[in-house]
Structure formats: structure tokens, C-alpha cells
Design a protein that fits this description.
By secondary structure, the chain is α+β, with helices and mostly antiparallel strands. Helix content is about 25%, strand content about 20%. β6 and β7 form a beta hairpin. The radius of gyration is 20 Å and the shape is globular. It comes from Microbacterium croceum.
Length: about 325
């Protein structure tokens, strides 16, 4: 499932390429035909991400809410204006938080996480993207416009130069402003939304009153927004915290450390497009990690392999119908 960093990157993509423009909306698949007809011809006003959900505001006090879920993805085509605050495998990686490493050339990710062309469930994208800092004529290079529909597209949004195709979302619905605010109110704090200090306090209060295992709480979107299976496993390891510890039994200083780590990791994820959770890497190690998920994490997807710290075999179990990876010794 796409985690919070991906959804924030999608929102930034929409902000630069769709906000302020008139939308042409359709549902090639037909499952969102009525909603697309309502959206068609409206101007995109604003966009925001909260956790794993994106909200696109259009004129007339109408919001489009999209939750990608396990299988959803946005595919982009046409002229893509690049957000200079985020990096891409299709362009310069830019400054990172790993010892100030500065990588000048593209690093291609084998897991499909880092792409301007497709953000969401990993897939081999066939759409054509041309990055640009200023618009150019699409037909100068003979690009077919609009691009052909590929697969089951729930919603297609078009401007005069950019296309966004939504496939396989868990939710794609229209909301009034009141409905949108009610949805957001049910979500836990997101480090990139709202007051930072209050966000931390909300998280601390929510964890302190729960008997539920901390591994489950980190995945509960009403407790904290945006954390998924990868970040959950990595954050628990980084704090050397037993995933089965009840929330109310976790020391407050550790709960605060979890939150502050999430603030940091989310920022890295939004910048790079990767769920980078290892620290103090050399430039060579960082390059390898950005290119391959296997070199990017402490415990995630490493069941049966030795812990990178103590050598104990990484355990795998199911909790809350999701896979949990952890070190039985470091996190005893």
C-alpha cells in the first residue's frame, strides 16, 4: 500500500500541474461516470494530502477524495512541471539527509517507488512523461494527445497539457466541504499538516490511553496518519521497541521519539520518493539503497536474514492481517 510520503508527492504533483486549471474529467472504466460528469469543466482550486488520502478541491465547493489502498495508483502523462522540492529517479536526486550526500545523476529504483510517471502500487508504466520547468507544445514531438487509455482507468483528469489516470483505488468519491472536514477529523495527526507541537501531543495522548499493541497503533490511521507496513516495522526497530508492547506501557519519551522519527522519515520520503530508513550511509551505500529496497531497510522484508545489528534471524509474523518484521533480540 502506498504510504504517506507517496500521497504527499502526488498532492504536490497535482498542485503544480492541475491547480488553477480547468479539468476535463471522464471515467473510461465507467465506475465513476457520474462523478466524472460532475467534475468535468470545473477548475481545480487546491489540493492537500492527509496521511494516505488526497483531497482535490474544485470550484463550486466540491472535493474529490482519493484513497489508493493496496492497489491504487496515479499515472501521469504529458508535460509534467517538476516540483524542485522533491527528487525523482527520472531526474537529479538533489540534496539528501544522508550526510549531505549530493548525487548528480539519476538513480533508478527497481521497486518502482520513485517516478514522476506513476505513483502508487508498483507497476511498469507505459505512459509518456516529459518533465519540464515550462510548458512546451505537446505536438512538437509528435506525442499522441490525449494519450490512449491503458487498462482499467477509474478516473482520467486532463488539462490542456497534462493527464492523470487513476487506477484501482479503494476510494474515489466526491464530497461537500463538510464531508471532507469530517473525513479529515477522523484521521490521526500528519507531520505535514497542522501545528507540529499539537500533532505530537495528539499522538502521545492517543497512544497513552490504548492497551492495543504499539505495532497495531502505528497502523491505525485514527492514531497517526500515513504510516504503513514498511515504516511501521522500521520505526519500531529504530527505537528498539518490542512491537507487542501495549501503547499505554510504552514510555512517553519513547512515544515522542517515535513521533519525531516519523516526522524525519516522512520528510525524507517526500523528498526522495523512497522509504529510506537507514542512517549514516556512505555515498556508495546510499546510492545502492536508493536503487534497491533490499539495501534500504533495517528489518522490513528481511525475514530469516540476520539482523544488521546483532545477527539474530529477523522474525516474521502476522498481526492485524499484515506482515510484521522485527528482531527478537534488539527489540526484546
Amino acid at each position: 500500500m502506498p504510504e504517506g510520503h507517496s500521497v504527499h508527492r502526488i498532492a504536490r504533483q497535482f498542485d503544480r500541474n492541475f491547480v488553477g486549471k480547468t479539468l476535463s474529467a471522464s471515467s473510461p472504466q465507467g465506475r465513476f461516470a457520474e462523478g466524472a460528469a460532475v467534475l468535468d469543466g470545473r477548475t481545480a482550486v487546491s489540493v492537500q494530502a492527509v496521511g494516505k488520502q488526497m483531497f482535490l478541491e474544485t470550484e463550486g465547493d466540491l472535493w474529490l477524495r482519493v484513497h489508493l489502498g493496496l492497489y491504487g495508483a496515479w499515472d501521469f502523462a504529458g508535460e509534467i512541471l517538476v516540483d524542485p522540492t522533491i527528487a525523482s529517479a527520472n531526474g537529479r536526486m538533489g540534496q539528501t539527509n544522508q550526510r549531505g550526500t549530493d548525487l548528480d545523476e539519476a538513480i533508478l529504483d527497481d521497486a518502482g517507488e520513485n517516478s514522476l510517471a506513476s505513483i502508487g502500487a508498483p507497476r511498469r508504466t507505459r505512459v509518456h512523461v516529459r518533465m519540464s520547468e515550462q510548458t512546451k507544445g505537446l505536438h512538437d514531438e509528435g506525442m499522441e494527445w490525449p494519450p490512449p487509455v491503458v487498462g482499467q482507468v477509474r478516473l482520467r483528469l486532463l488539462t490542456d497539457i497534462t493527464a492523470a489516470d487513476l487506477r484501482g483505488p479503494t476510494a474515489c468519491v466526491l464530497q461537500t466541504p463538510e464531508e471532507m472536514l469530517a473525513t479529515v477529523a477522523k484521521l490521526g495527526p500528519d507531520p505535514l499538516v497542522g501545528d507540529p507541537a499539537e500533532n505530537e501531543e495528539r499522538f502521545v495522548r492517543a497512544v497513552a490511553k490504548k492497551q492495543t499493541a504499539i505495532a497495531l497503533l502505528l497502523m491505525d490511521q485514527s492514531v497517526v496518519s500515513g504510516i504503513g507496513n514498511v515504516y511501521r516495522a522500521e520505526m519500531l526497530f529504530r527505537q528498539r521497541l518490542n512491537p507487542h508492547t501495549p501503547g499505554r506501557d510504552v514510555r512517553e519519551e519513547t512515544v515522542r521519539a517515535l513521533w519525531r522519527d516519523w516526522v524525519r522519515l516522512l520528510a525524507i520520503g517526500v523528498e526522495t520518493g523512497q522509504m529510506m530508513t537507514m542512517d549514516d550511509l556512505s555515498a556508495e551505500e546510499y546510492r545502492a539503497a536508493m536503487a534497491s529496497r533490499d539495501d534500504r531497510h533495517w528489518v522490513y522484508h528481511r525475514a530469516g536474514l540476520p539482523c544488521r545489528v546483532c545477527g539474530t534471524e529477523i522474525a516474521l509474523e502476522e498481526i492485524g492481517a499484515r506482515k510484521l518484521y522485527w528482531c527478537p533480540r534488539c527489540q526484546a
